[in-house]
Amino acid sequence: MDQMAEGKMEMVIANGKEILLARVGDNIYATQNNCPHMGGNLSHGALAGTILTCPRHHSQFDVRDGRVLSWTTWPAMVLFFAKIVRPPRPLKTYPVTIEGGNIYIET
Hints:
By secondary structure, the protein is mainly beta. 9% of the residues lie in helices and 39% in strands. The longest helix is centred in the last third of the chain and has 10 residues, at 76-85.
C-alpha cells in the first residue's frame, strides 16, 4: 500500500480482470477498469476525493460503492437519448483487504 500515493490510481490485473485501484486517504478501493458507459480506460481518468471521472465521456462514479454520480456531460437532449441506448450502470466494485502492506482484491 505504501507504494501507492494518496489520490493516485493504477490498473492491475487480478484473476485475468483489469482492476482499477484508487487510494483515498488510508483506503484502497477496487473497481472495474473499463467505464460501463463507453468502455473508457478509467485508469487514465481523474480522481477527486472518491469521485472518479471517465476520460472518454466524463461519466462520474463513486469509487467506494461504484454508484453513478453523473452519466455524461453531454447536452440534455443528447443525454436523454444516450440514456435510452446505454442506461446508467454502476461500476463493479471489489472488496479489498490490506495485510502486511500487501493489497488483496476479491474478484
